[in-house]
Structure formats: C-alpha cells, structure tokens
Amino acid sequence: MRIVTWNINGVQVRTDRLLAFLESAQPDVLVLQELKAPTDLFPYDEVRAAGYEVAARGDGRWNGVAILSRVGLDDVRYDLPGQPQWDGVTEPRAVAATCNGVRVWGVYVPNGRTIDDPHYAYKLEWLAALRETAVAEIAAAPDRPWVVLGDFNVAPTDADVWDIAQFADSTHVTPAERAAVTALTDSGLVEVMPRALKYDVPFTFWDYRQLAFPKNTGMRIDLVFGSPTFAAAVTDAYVDREARKTGKKGTTPPSDHAPIVVDVSL
After folding, report:
1. In which band, very low, low, confident or very high, does the pLDDT at 109 lie, cut at 50, 70 and 90?
2. Is the pTM of this model over 0.90?
3. What is the domain-level CATH number for residue 160?
4. I need a surface site. Which of 8, 11, 51, 152 has the fewest CB within 10 A?
5. What is the distance, to the nearest Å, from the Cα of residue 67 to the centroid of all Cα atoms in its chain?
6. How many domains are there within the chain?
7. Which helix (H) or strand (E) holds 138?
8. At a CB cut-off of 8 Å and minimum separation 6, what does 251 contact?
C-alpha cells in the first residue's frame, strides 16, 4: 500500500500536475494540503476518472486539505476534535479517513507567521490538539495502523534546514514548535523518515526564489508519524524530487513542496 503526502500549493492551477503524479506514482492514498480552492471547485471529475474517491474541504484561502483514495474512503472526518479556531473560524486544515484498514490523517499545520504574532500561539494550540487526537484514537484501537502526515511547518532539528543561521528569531525552528512535534513521538508515535536520495537530508520544501531548488537550500517541514503498528510495516519512504522539478517550457510551475512517498506492507 502506497500512501503519499503533498502540499500542492493550489489544486486548481496544478490539476495537470496532480493527474500526472497519480499516473506516475500510483499512490493508493494521497493526502493534499494547501488546496487554495473552495470545496466545490476541487477537480472531482478528473480525479474520480483517474480511479480515486475524494474527501476534500477548502475555503479558497491559503489552506484546504483532501484525501484521495483508490482503496476505500470510510469514516471520513473533517477537523481535529477540539481544533482551535482562528478569527472565530475552524479552518480546513485536517481530514481523516480509514483506507483499507489504515486510519489516515492529513494535516496542514498553521504557519505561525512570526514569534510575536497571535498565529504562533494558534499554531502551538493546533499541534497540541493534534497530539490529543493521536493519543485518543490510537488508545481506542491500538492494533489498527494509524498515520498522520502532511505539512507541519516545523523543521524538527537544525539539520532539517539548509542554514540554521538564516532562521534566527524565526518560526519553524523555535524550541516550542519543536517540542510540540517531539510530543508526538513522546506519546508513542514513530516518525517515518524518508531516505536520502540525492542529498544527505531529504528536504521537502524549497522557496521559489534565488534558485533554491537547484541549490538545495531547502527545509524538511513535511512529516510523517505513525503508530508502532504502522511504522513496523513501512518498507520504504522517500521524497519524490521529480515532482518538484520545473519541467518543460510552457508547463505548469511545480509546487514549492515535493511529495513524500511511504510504502507499507500490511
């Protein structure tokens, strides 16, 4: 079973890239973040024609999540239990479904903006709600494979950014954010680390500016955490750098994130 996470950075403008990825990578389950499209404008027809069921929700702003599955899409849930709100709104940042017996959560963690911005506190509250959700669901069904994957907007260690000196007083690398992610593993989850391919560190995000992707000045902020049952079944995990490449002249620009592909034998 192949499960993939990908911040697509606009599903409408990159529908062609999405369909090409479904064809080339053949994921059984694909979780998407940053749809940047309202729910009714997701490309349902095209994705269903490719053989996938869809659970999607977005409001057209810089968020939105979806699960695409060709192995079942049961017990769909939107939003974390107790998910904090932003400006009085429960943003579309989390979606879950059971796919071929695996409980899958796709998440798009708030950015945090700056350390002194209220959005930073919101981010920490959001990560705490995610931990509580993980603990409760795994305790309720400890033998069921369980995984959460997506754009966490946190680089877990200094090695997960190209130059930690560039991030002084910035979000994504603060002790509080890292502690919130570490709390997931402290609660019993296991991080599924993609293997390194071209470079030592499997970065997943590169800015569009200053030739960041060719220079590999990136960050590892897309993450995968599974229950022990899930993690024990992982046979491979890697970052699909091909999906981040620009492609031929005239083609749609790529997302600034690359997908993480996880293969499991269950």
Report:
1. very high
2. yes
3. 3.60.10.10
4. 51
5. 11
6. 1
7. helix 118-140
8. 16
